[in-house]
Amino acid sequence: MSLEISNNNIYKNLYDGKWESIPNIKFIEITSPVDGSLVGKIEAMTKDDVDKVVTNSKSAEKVWSETPISKRAEILHKAADLLEASKSELSDILQIEIAKDRKSCLSEISRTVDFIKFTADEGKHMEGETIGADNFPGFNNNKLSLVTRVPVGTVLAISPFNYPINLSASKIAPALIAGNCVILKPPTQGAISALHLADIFNKAGLPPGVLNTVTGQGSSIGDYIVKHKDINFINFTGSTEVGKHIAEIAGMVPMLMELGGKDAALVLEDADLEAAAKNIVQGAYSYSGQRCTAVKRVIAIDSIADELVEKLKDKVEKLKVGMPHQDVDITPLINSKAADFVEGLIQEALDKNAKLILGNKRNGNLLYPTLIDNVTLDMRLAWEEPFGPVLPIIRVSNIDEAIEIANQSEYGLQSSVFTTNINKAFYTAKKLEVGTVQINNKTERGPDHFPFTGFKSSGLGTQGIRYSIEAMSRIKSIVLTIEG
Ligand code: NAP
Ligand code: G3P
Hints:
By secondary structure, the chain is of the alpha/beta class. The strands form nine sheets. A seven-stranded mixed beta sheet has the order 16-19-20-15-14-22-23, with helices on both faces. Strands 11-10-9-12-13-26 form a six-stranded mixed beta sheet, with helices on both faces. Strands 7-8-28 form a three-stranded antiparallel beta sheet. The structure holds NADP nicotinamide-adenine-dinucleotide phosphate and SN-glycerol-3-phosphate.
């Protein structure tokens, strides 16, 4: 890993192709959710610093937009190779910075390597089209539209703490291949991992200024960057609360938003309960439930609910709890505020007579996997996104009631339906108000070239490699009129 990026664990920002320290800057200490140790310090940039960065990005737009796509793709492939080579070291940083278990860290990085390579190749195959005029009433074949894609300019990429590598790269790579400059604003907790990723892109040979970074608390400088007149596109992943706030203040800037979720797993009478339980437990508890696509509620038909709960219990009991390097399933939550919040949701449900099946134990920020049955619709746990290792079970009497409750959520990211009846699967899938329905599988994003979109408060626009490139470029048409 490069020496230029930090000095005595004090991290700089990438500016004009170099890692620069800002004189007289204040620092934010990043401590580990694992043991409270200092991971490093990052710069709390000011409005003036942001202005300087944006000006630099604008000055790099021309050279990058005129760089042939084949050359851009070559640089992305180089970045992917460098990322692959840094896997072990970066995984160590991720583990300590965001307390993600080792296996999930390695998989986040491998998946990102594949993502960058796929993006490079996809970009090479995104061709324009020509459209004739004679199929439109009143026109002859004397006009031709030459449709191309051009970059939008400078993309502001804002990523969340739970995938600081993957959800930074999934914005940076498609934006770059489309010919844009990128300013990365990483999550504060997760910034160090993301700065290492930026270093890798820079080392792969990006011209100076094509990728810059801005660090600082979103609550301090976030509003200023998102409203900046020279930002041409905002690609944001994070909470619905912050996403809606950005959408309100940013003005007429195109944006992609990946926000919160309350993904439901609907389990019908004829489901293979063993397979359903296995998928649900993996989907609900990996990275301690800190995933937008985690299964966040089970809606089960009453007649099979007892058997399902037994199977879920059996599998949740086997989850390993501990620290990231111990190859466990459940690790400490990102901070104590998050742990307090999850605990509050559990307690409120129990106070209202939900039935605790397992868990509700806490050691610092480490919450043990918790399974709660008989959750009813007056409980916050039925509706709110915990972002922690707790799974509520809501019992219903039939398929339509299950669909109705699923759709009452303010969120609409994904849902699963478990059934062996293909007709019921499609009946349910068609009625669920979500971007993706998984049939007999846990909710999850990958593979990353599939469309990924949230209905309602879960997002705006569609990600997924080709979709992201399309979103971060615009159509430009040149019309030829042929005489005679
Ligand atoms: P968050 O608190 O909303 O923060 C996300 C990012 O926004 C961080 O970089 C944060 O910076 C920044 N930010 C905060 N306030 C800002 C402002 N006023 N202007 C601009 N940027 C601002 O979310 P999180 O806790 O990191 O992530 C968890 C949430 O993300 C969950 O709700 C989860 O469901 C959602 N998520 C969604 C998806 C999806 O694909 N749909 C994927 C992953 C996560 P600081 O860190 O400096 O505050
Ligand atoms: O929450 C992060 C989002 O990218 C989902 O990815 O693979 O956890 O479903 P995954």
